[in-house]
Amino acid sequence: MNPRGRNPYRRNPVDDRTAAPGADAARRSGRHRTARTHVSALGAALALVGAMTWAAPPAVAETASVRCTGTNVIKYNPGVTYQERTVQINGQDNATSCVDTVSGESLSFVAPFSGKFTTSCASLFTGGTGTQTLKWNTGETSQWEWTMHFSTNVNGQLQSIADGPILGGRYAGAQLRQVVTVTTLDQGACSTEKGLTQTGGPSNWEFTG
């Protein structure tokens, strides 16, 4: 191992008499320029990191988590029989108690609906699609597009289930499910001339998304 400063294969610019005059100063000047360049680049990088660190966080979409309880009533005119015919329906959903678990608000809404369709007691509960406007106690509305399904629970009670998106207004973009337990259902009326004139029962709604 060679002693420090005694490497015979390395020229020492301080002792080297052949070095061009001013070469050492030029080297020092070059090192200073390089250092300034590094400092400038470091400063720009730190400024960029600072800007990234303090940039405003992206907006987070609002979510909905609302549960409501109430009632559902549908009236048919003329009454529905086993013979298929066109009937006028008029009804209303009343959500008397709603809790928004995100905002903590206590809410309620009413949602009247009406229309005509051709049906019979044999096909009344086979489903359908439609739209409905929910009118909140806050003065706001929600436009709901639903698809209806029917099923029987383990106790043999008929349940009407509707699912679909909220297309506009309060909770736009959320999904809504309504479950009605059909307690007003006189199937014997289907065999009479008057027919079945009303169905309904307690209802639950759940907004998610």
UniProtKB/TrEMBL annotation:
Identification of the protein by name: Secreted protein
Entry keyword set: Membrane, Transmembrane, Transmembrane helix
Organism: Nocardioides vastitatis
Residue ranges of the TM segments: 37-56
Top-level taxonomic group: Bacteria
Keyword Transmembrane helix recorded: yes
Renumbered residue ranges of the record's region Disordered: 1-36
Top-level taxonomy: Bacteria, Bacillati, Actinomycetota, Actinomycetes, Propionibacteriales
